[in-house]
Model the fold of this input.
Amino acid sequence: MSFKENLIDKIKIDKIAEKVLHSIGPPGSNRKIDKAAMKSLMEKSPYKFRKARDLELFVKEGDAGRDKILVLDNELALYKTSVDDVAMRKSPTVKEMLYFRNAIKILNDKDVVVSKREESLETIHQECVDMIDLTFNKADIADIEKEGAASLKNGYMEGVIESLELFAELLDYSSPPRGFKIPHHLIMGALTKAKTDEVMFGPILIYSNVHNTLKLIDDLIGNYDKGKIELFKQIVAGKTPASLEGEKVFKFLGEATVNRGH
Done:
């Protein structure tokens, strides 16, 4: 697969993991995790699906019967033991429960549980990402830059957004903080925190999916800076020129990515 395809796959994995994360309720709640999303994440992982009794398991083989096993339920417990051991602990038969040693294991699984819930999800998420080759060269970045510029020129909104999201991933750009969100605009930028509780936002990408216009503000704007926020709104409205506009924005992003990579 190409670098672009691998990066798109990584973004998809991040979004799936975020969807699962938002479905996890507090401990002891009856809130159900998004099992369909978690399954799709596991399909991109090094774990293999296995059914044991009434359990849905995902297994990554280890040494000497010490496999890593995720149980697909609300706890998302990640075990390091055997499938048979997990099946006995999580779904014991009456006969198994009659043995004292088994009863102890059923009541207390701390000896084999590696993590649960959010921690397990993060482990799986990272293992999925680790399988992807995200190394790139200047030519890879130039291709994304050219595709974005061509999409903008041809009014192909999906292509523009895809290229912007790829650069946002490479440059760690985020969604805007409160006060910077504008209807019908895709807005992304670098977020940093000042020594106070103020959030600094910039450089800022502004794409209008109605007018197919792309702008960049090459500046830092604090979320408490009313003057600069008003200037930001004037730039979005087209009443004040941006630092860069049009295809030049993609050139800026390409150069910033290459420089950051080095």
Notes: The radius of gyration is 24 Å. Strands lie at 48-52, 55-60, 67-71, 78-81, 113-115, 185-193, 199-208, 213-217, 221-222, 244-245. The mean pLDDT is 94.
